[in-house]
What does this fold into?
Amino acid sequence: MNCLVCRKPFAVPWSPATLLKYDWVCPDCDAMFTPLEPGCPRCGHPTEDGATCDDCVRWLGLGLDLTVRSLFAYDEAGANWLHRYKFGGDVALANQMRSVLRKTREPGAVYVPIPLSEERLRTRRFNQAEVLAQMIGPTKQVLVKTEVSSQRELGKEERRHRTNPFTVQQLPRCGKIVLVDDVYTTGTTLHQAALTLRQAGVEQVSAVCLFRTLNKSKMRPI
It folds into this structure.
């Protein structure tokens, strides 16, 4: 059996399920991510004594309160994985995250992926957030995104103050919407999407994000 991530051969314990499962991940690759310990109650960023982080304090000051469940730190391993998945188009890698994403599922929630603009979707050929959302629970396309400059070209302050690119396409009948995205950097994308949903009448909005950048991280931007 070859590992889905590193492609190296490794032994797996045999059972009838072995015949049906093809996306095995070796122990080294399975342990390469850094789970976020309890930190900021709103975004998961590590903080002392579980206090609200500075970024979320700023969002609260703008009247935007969103709880985001972030699963892993965006460190070297996270960056390498995300670039291979997102920009390399290796969609099968998402299967490695299936079980951890599934554990975030909430009863009665509909999972709404952060959309790509039509132009970006045409270029990338898949929405990385949609694939992740489908691994959690029932998914619906609710938001439409207008093309804006890539966030990779923007500084942190420019990201925070960009124009809201989201509009509501069609609201589902549900008690709660959970936004899904691949990485939380400044929080602008998720807060703008949540604000758009609330202005459309959605009362309960939260979010799940696979990776959370750390403020002192020296990683390359997404």
